[in-house]
């Protein structure tokens, strides 16, 4: 089961998925491609170190978002990618990607959606003063963190929490949540109907 990861930054989720795939912990899924819009992002070096092919591009050098997405779709098709996994990819997708990969395109977001969509979700949660937050894996539609929810994991916000400590704690739960969800896909256990997601039991 062949997956591509889209990332723009540090790439800790990318690394987790690469490592889990190599260790046989993703139900047979493997990361076959990194797509990155920032040539100097640390995640690119991680991909090189792991031997994962990279499609890196500079958005400014294209006439439109659709133009670079058409190129990306070409890469995904060449590699027979079955699931597209966004992990800190800091761009909205157009209908080119969203329609082509409908039902096979997921994102992870560092809050309990629908609370705190968009950037700075962790800071938003701290500023609001919620006592629980977490991470959400969801299907991607045309909106900002608005697609059907697949799985969530919550954590408590401690009274002395900072953006740094909470980011660390959320990364820790993401490290477990994202591989679990990718495994469900690889095992063919995720159903999407009328915006409702069901996970088929494997017992
Ligand atoms: C994660 O917190 C994820 O929820 C958000 O972006 C962050 C990416 O972190 N979408 P990393 O690059 O995987 O370390």
TrEMBL record:
Record-listed (6R)-10-formyltetrahydrofolate binding positions: 65, 90-93, 107
Q: What is its EC number?
A: 2.1.2.2
Q: One GO CC term of this entry?
A: cytosol
Q: Name the domain of life.
A: Bacteria
**From its record, what is one biological process in GO terms?**
'de novo' IMP biosynthetic process
User: Which residues take part in binding N(1)-(5-phospho-beta-D-ribosyl)glycinamide?
Assistant: 11-13
Q: Where is this site: Raises pKa of active site His?
A: 145
Q: Name one GO molecular function term.
A: phosphoribosylglycinamide formyltransferase activity
Q: Could you tell me which pathway this protein works in?
A: Purine metabolism; IMP biosynthesis via de novo pathway; N(2)-formyl-N(1)-(5-phospho-D-ribosyl)glycinamide from N(1)-(5-phospho-D-ribosyl)glycinamide (10-formyl THF route): step 1/1
Could you tell me the keywords of this UniProt record?
Purine biosynthesis, Transferase
Q: Where, by residue number, is the active site?
A: 109 (proton donor)
Catalytic function, reaction form: N(1)-(5-phospho-beta-D-ribosyl)glycinamide + (6R)-10-formyltetrahydrofolate = N(2)-formyl-N(1)-(5-phospho-beta-D-ribosyl)glycinamide + (6S)-5,6,7,8-tetrahydrofolate + H(+)
Query: What region holds the Formyl transferase N-terminal domain?
Result: 2-182
Q: Per its UniProt record, what NCBIfam families does this chain match?
A: PurN
Role of this protein: Catalyzes the transfer of a formyl group from 10-formyltetrahydrofolate to 5-phospho-ribosyl-glycinamide (GAR), producing 5-phospho-ribosyl-N-formylglycinamide (FGAR) and tetrahydrofolate.
Q: Which family does it belong to?
A: Belongs to the GART family.
State what protein this is by name. Answer: Phosphoribosylglycinamide formyltransferase
């Amino acid at each position: 089961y062949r997956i591509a990861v889209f990332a723009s930054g540090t790439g800790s989720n990318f690394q987790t998925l690469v490592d889990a795939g190599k260790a046989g912990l993703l139900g047979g899924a493997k990361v076959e491609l990194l797509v990155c819009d920032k040539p100097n992002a640390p995640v690119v070096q991680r991909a090189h170190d792991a031997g994962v092919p990279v499609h890196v591009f500079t958005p400014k050098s294209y006439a439109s978002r659709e133009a670079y997405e058409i190129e990306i779709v070409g890469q995904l098709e060449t590699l027979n990618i079955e699931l597209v996994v966004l992990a800190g990819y800091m761009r909205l997708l157009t209908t080119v990607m969203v329609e082509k990969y409908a039902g096979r395109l997921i994102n992870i977001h560092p809050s309990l959606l629908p609370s705190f969509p968009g950037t700075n979700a962790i800071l938003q949660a701290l500023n609001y003063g919620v006592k629980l937050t977490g991470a959400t894996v969801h299907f991607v539609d045309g909106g900002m963190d608005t697609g059907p929810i697949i799985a969530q994991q919550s954590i408590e916000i401690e009274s002395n929490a900072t953006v740094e400590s909470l980011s660390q704690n959320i990364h820790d739960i993401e490290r477990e949540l994202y591989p679990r969800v990718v495994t469900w896909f690889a095992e063919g256990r995720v159903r999407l109907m009328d915006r409702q997601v069901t996970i088929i039991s494997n017992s």
